[in-house]
User: What shape does this take?
Amino acid sequence: MRYETLIRCILRCLESLGGVPWVLVFDNMSTIVHTLAERDKDGNPVWNQKFRQFASEIGFHPDVCDPGAANQKGTVENGVKFVKRNFLAGRAFRDDDDLSAQSWEWILERNSQKCQAHAILQTTFC
Assistant: This one.
């Protein structure tokens, strides 16, 4: 993914969320970190400088999946699977504007529903 595309997508997500979360977790992409194998002496990722500056300016702390923890990568990728299975499957779009309109309606509908994660958090922390 090109850096500009990544930044544009992150900004759109934050705009639709209406704020900036404390931490954003990413896969180990070259637009985020230099290389998968490159870590500092404490084992932390070596950030792509442009991305680190972007994160600092926007006000979130970037994090990446641990290369040795397959469950983390799966968690990140589950969001993509969710959209493919629940939004894209069986839909047709006239053009980009139609895709955008349908996806926005779907997002508003989904964001108003509670999921199991919300129920677990409410019972655990409330």
Summary: Helices lie at 3-17, 49-58, 70-88, 96-111, 116-125. Residues 71-125 form one domain. The chain has two domains: 3-69, 71-125. The chain has a mean pLDDT of 79.
